[in-house]
Amino acid sequence: MKHVITPPNTPVLPVSGTQNTFPVRRVYCIGRNYAAHAIEMGHDPDRDPPFFFQKNPDNLDPSGDFPYPAQSVHVHHEIELAVALKTGGTNIPVDKALGHVYGYAVALDMTRRDRQAEAKKAGRPWDVAKAFERSAPIAPIVPSSVIGHPSKGKIQLLVNGTERQLGDLDQMIWKVPEMISYLSDYFTLSAGDVILTGTPSGVGPVQKGDVMEAHIEGFETLTVTVS
């Protein structure tokens, strides 16, 4: 049997310090996972069950360039820790979850805030706001064999040299092992899956020409220019 069209390329991400790449299968994103961010978005930060949305694998972009998307005039930055899985499964126990992690990366969940507000008001999905082209700038993945499993450390975003977001990984409401376990109750996780773990407070708009510097303690800074 032959394909009726040429199969699309599998999106891949660079692995830090190597010539290797990490093939991406799915991208899961957790919402409102830092209490201060939940409050600034008008929500209760209590530890309710987590909720997730998805971006597309090819939304992950290691180029360092973020093209300002059409059909929006209010686009926000959200710095996040990305988790890349090497194995998966269902009903993964919390105490076994980190054994499925290949590595971590600094990432941005860029959001069409105007389109998200419209979707929320109408009770519609967030796809247009979250899953648009190149909406997730990301740094090379650092293997857990190199970086360990970071559970605390400064997470910070600067725009044109001015601090916008500041928090600590230990402020996550749902920790990485809990996210992996919870997701595996609803989806069959697999090698190649990437999880974006939420953002601290201070999200705000960017404009063409802005330079974003995303930093998580222990990682190299991800620098992204808005074009």
TrEMBL record:
A molecular function (GO) held by this record is: hydrolase activity
Q: Keyword check for Hydrolase, yes or no.
A: yes
Q: Which residues form the Fumarylacetoacetase-like C-terminal domain?
A: 27-226
Give the UniProt keywords, A-Z: Hydrolase, Metal-binding
Q: Which PANTHER family match?
A: ACYLPYRUVASE, FLUTATHIONE S-TRANSFERASE
Q: Which organism is it from?
A: Roseibium algae
Q: Does the keyword Nucleotide-binding apply?
A: no
- Return the SUPFAM superfamilies for the record: FAH
Any one Pfam family here would be: FAA_hydrolase
Q: What is this protein called?
A: Fumarylacetoacetate hydrolase family protein
